[in-house]
Design brief:
The protein is mainly alpha-helical. Helices cover 64% and strands 0% of the residues. Helix 1 packs antiparallel against helix 2. Interacts directly with the RNA polymerase.
Amino acid sequence: MAKVTLEDGYVPSDDEPFMNDRQREYFRRKLLSWKSDILREAQDTLVALQSENENHPDLADRASSETDRAIELRARDRQRKLTGKIDAALARLEDGSYGYCEETGEPISLRRLDARPIATLSLEAQERHERREKVYRDD
């Protein structure tokens, strides 16, 4: 793939061809930056958890500390799953399927991709999916 340079402040626009080289590079950088932030936060959490090996004599303090640790670990687990979705989006960028709805094959709006770069469904398809999920969940 040829090296694409993006000027500062570049934002994909509907005025240009969908998923052109500049748009793909923009989203690739956005995804890699997001993944890097998540991995850095995970490392910071690991360091903090290792250094916070306090033995709280007060039961309430100990319970509060354990609750905080459990919440932090749950958040990190969600972010670990998110890195898998980021990797999948990067793979779609490579194979040319990024930005297209998995259900309809239609382009996903640039605004949606900018807000949720791991999106695999168009807004309409996502809404249909959520409505079906709600119907089955209410049974």
